[in-house]
Amino acid sequence: MSILVGNGTRLAIQGITGHEGMFHTQQMIEYGTPVVAGVTPGKGGEWVHGVPVFDTVREAVNTTGANTSIIYVPAPFASDAIMEAADAGIQLIVCVTEGIPVLDMVRVCHFLDGTDARLIGPNCPGIITPGEAKVGIMPGHIHLPGPVGLVSRSGTLTYEVVQALTDRGLGQSTAVGIGGDPIIGTTFIDMLRLFESDPMTGHVVLIGEIGGSDEERAAQFIAAEISKPVTAFIAGRTAPPGQRMGHAGAIIEGSEGTAQEKIATLEAVGIGVASYPAEVADLVAERM
Amino acid sequence: MSILVGNGTRLAIQGITGHEGMFHTQQMIEYGTPVVAGVTPGKGGEWVHGVPVFDTVREAVNTTGANTSIIYVPAPFASDAIMEAADAGIQLIVCVTEGIPVLDMVRVCHFLDGTDARLIGPNCPGIITPGEAKVGIMPGHIHLPGPVGLVSRSGTLTYEVVQALTDRGLGQSTAVGIGGDPIIGTTFIDMLRLFESDPMTGHVVLIGEIGGSDEERAAQFIAAEISKPVTAFIAGRTAPPGQRMGHAGAIIEGSEGTAQEKIATLEAVGIGVASYPAEVADLVAERM
Amino acid sequence: MKLHEFQSKRILAGFGVPIPQGDVAPTPAEAGQIAQRLGGPVVVKAQVLVGGRGKAGGIRLAADAGEAEQVASQILRMTIKGISVNTVLIDQAADIREEIYMGITLDRANRKPAMIVSPQGGVEIEQVAKDTPEQIFKLMIDPMLGLMDYQIRNLAFDLGLPRVVIRQFTTIGRALYRVFIQSDDTLTEINPLVITSDERLLAVDGKIVLDDNALFRHRDLGELRDVQRQSEAERQARQAGISYVKLDGKIGCMVNGAGLAMATMDVISLYGGQPANFLDIGGGAKADRVAAALRIILSDPNVKSVLFNIFGGITRCDEVARGIVTALNEIEPQVPMVARLVGLNEEEGQQILADAEMATATSLVEAAQTAVELASG
Amino acid sequence: MKLHEFQSKRILAGFGVPIPQGDVAPTPAEAGQIAQRLGGPVVVKAQVLVGGRGKAGGIRLAADAGEAEQVASQILRMTIKGISVNTVLIDQAADIREEIYMGITLDRANRKPAMIVSPQGGVEIEQVAKDTPEQIFKLMIDPMLGLMDYQIRNLAFDLGLPRVVIRQFTTIGRALYRVFIQSDDTLTEINPLVITSDERLLAVDGKIVLDDNALFRHRDLGELRDVQRQSEAERQARQAGISYVKLDGKIGCMVNGAGLAMATMDVISLYGGQPANFLDIGGGAKADRVAAALRIILSDPNVKSVLFNIFGGITRCDEVARGIVTALNEIEPQVPMVARLVGLNEEEGQQILADAEMATATSLVEAAQTAVELASG
Description:
heterotetramer; A: alpha/beta; seven-stranded mixed β-sheet; 9 helices; 34% helix; C: alpha+beta; four-stranded antiparallel β-sheet; 13 helices; elongated
């Protein structure tokens, strides 16, 4: 089995009765994801695309055995939804919501430290194991099962790279968007560790961007712990300092978080860094 | 060696320049306690009874190797002093201060959960290993080295029992006042565990009072885990419900926390409960 | 420190909890004016800091302003559990469909605040816990994270509340926790929290107990203390920093240390007497404090003898004895007394007391027996 | 969202941080009046949301009200880093003995707030960190427990502050953390925090950066946004929910997704061009948003060509193309454009654009190359 999501996934959708929740519920069901429950407080008893809706995650878990959840809840309520899921025993929580206050995420991460739950996101496209399950908002049809594990801070940029891989016949074991916020649940290093121990993954693609130092830490981790080949792309070489580039986390502060620094650190430990997104596929192909 | 304090103690006194701190510093030095440092922010560089004063516990620990501290700091600042001590690496913290807000203690206990430090108190007389070291405010001269381990929620009531034991020639291994507040660091169960594994302790005396259910939990723990004989006294058989009896923790709430309930629970697991303080010594003597 | 219902509800309202419109009045005429202003039926409620007001007839409905004035005049003449009613609260009567309970208290064993809710509101929660424990839902609150909305929602669904009130319930739960934390409470309670027939939630009664130890950071709340309703003895004790609780017996006692004071009461009882009070004079035993404590004890006309039980410890007993003698000379008490002093120089101390014609004892048991004898003599 | 110095200092003062007496003025005359009122020497400071005001001459001392008015009139005519100065702050001049730095920011790697202090105040802290890292003291704050007094005291002793100011320093540190938490900041900074010659601490300059994502719970703070000083393009982008950052190049770009938008800029640069902006139109690509984005891009006179890079994903490309055509018809842009559409029905989408006489490309590299050619053509 691939990592995090697959045939064993039993998905609950938090915020299923909202516009986005409804739309993606249908998309995920069409992709073959086992969607077992929806949650919207006050709407328990309704049905959305054949999925039963519950008032609380606790009730959804107790009734349907949900083990994974995806959150389409507006930002002011999203951190509460994450903690509710973890408290109810959900093991993997994917939070799509953009715009959660950063201090809310500080609190959420502290809360999650005391539980077994893993959070992906927020402000992320989610996770897909091509051919098995899609827990996210990415276009399923561009993916192809295969050996490349992909982890990224972006959405459409990831699709761009996936498309390039698929076009070359390079399928993906699992592709994960970890989110564009300054504070996120699962980091590059967490994903690298999972890919390293996943027998279905033969090559790892890491897509980073300006802001913070997660890529630099990932580079050190790769040098020390990862035996599989890694290829990277870093967005934002032309980004000016001190300006937020769309993502809350994509900002060069002082001299910290530049693409140049990240690329240099990755290259210093022998990781191939593509100069444009589609080149990732070329670099991966060279080393397969 | 006896438990918690002894020849290995290196004591720092927080609030050493205050009236109470100064007085008891002298008392503890006279008893033979190794007092190595005092702490009062803003008074670093002064000396009290030959003890050097530092501005911070961190500095006191770094300079003198203090491993134990006792706190004579006014209630509004005491919780900060406890956390400062734990953060500086102090292993055993005795807090004498009375009147600390209970929500401050909730915070302190949570903080201490993440450290190796043990807190005794607050609102307690401290701890003494007769003949070795006294870290507290109890009268040293009434104590006698010997086999009885004593743990109590009170101050003078403990002295009363100690005096009765000493008068009968029953010495004490270690005597600890764990404090009269609703939320305290070290509980009866913690102390029972230490006495159980202490080869110097042959008999345990537990002195409880109305309020909470620590004595009831201790009774269950004794039944399950303690092989040494235990004798108890519970104060407050005549206390009315709903009224705070001096100690913040000594209050019968609804029907919870009565002396009758505590005595019944202790007796139900075979523990002898004295009807007046001095009778504790009789009961101990009977079983020695 | 307990707050009155009207004080508690005002605080709750300040944090966004909906309460009935109303106001307090010290006289029937003012009660009538408030009822007039509110219009429609009102509830007239005695403001006393004891439980069981309802059973005692201290809470009554009035159909209009005239009846409100009349009912208020009756309630303002009442004495409930020994406390005379000086103030009534006039609240707009609510149209009640259901009564629930919501409270936050400190769970000592878990060292955390806990929220308790029950569909059985309007009665004492301890009674519900005893009779129908399955009707009690308890939630531990992580004191560092605080109370989360989803936790309150889970409680709402535990209670099976109608959907339309769940958002209000969550808002009120959040407010209750903020009150608990921000005013340093040991109990913050809405009982009953009612669902009205037009599906609104309303805190019809509220109770706040403040942590005395935290009053130093809540001057404003400390000022809510009901000085008028305190006994003179309680007032003096507080002023002198003495812990004092009046009881019903005949033997006054003055002890240093709370545990020893309770044990002293117990021993008096063990030997057939009844303590007239709990009193802890605290550390040391200076003459002025002894005098203050003695005045407080003797202000109770039931007291027939007084027992001093002082474990000197580090303090020298001769000093303590001199303090006692000074106080005795000042007050010249008319009841017999027995003193037991232990600590450094205890013989010398006992001699000083004996010279002052005070009975002395060496053990607590002996002192208690003497005090019992003196009280019945 | 950055706040002005005077706004930041007012917020800090509201939490008990001592700041110099002063006020803001939009005209030299008012500046003079404020200086008159304050008496003595004052500092006149340009209120612009860019760094390096001091070096640019935007902060100047004035000995009296007359000089203040004169200096203000000079500063109010200035343009600092492209921003014209509309307001000056007139502060009472402080008698400075030492300048220290105190700031709280979010440590992303540790997921915690961190307090940073340094004895090197009055200069950019990043510079201090680079040049003399041993002069930086950093403290991680447990977000659940908050900042403890002893931690602030430890920092005070790390800094070797004079004893007499340590209590003030602790109070200010506590206040700074409260501001950080209660207004949801990503940076709360006092720089310099000065020790005056009479041994008081004074926040001579302050800076607050708010978390944009948290503005929904701080309506009052959101209103502090300096609308006047924003470019029209920024204002429109915010209104349309579009992320837009103006840059200095000639090639405008419109992309869906922030990462892809950055990558698009990078590829333009890789092929010898220079992006005129970062622009993320967000999910979908409805005609009205495309039109708004296009207007924003074209409001920059430097733009010589525009690149559309839309990865449709789940959205159908023919729909996106029709949206673009509708927008083009409405705006009738005069610069050449190239579009690259990927996703469902991408051939159909490209056909629609080609029919509208727009250049199309299948890969990002091809699109970038075309855009560069178009811009230099």
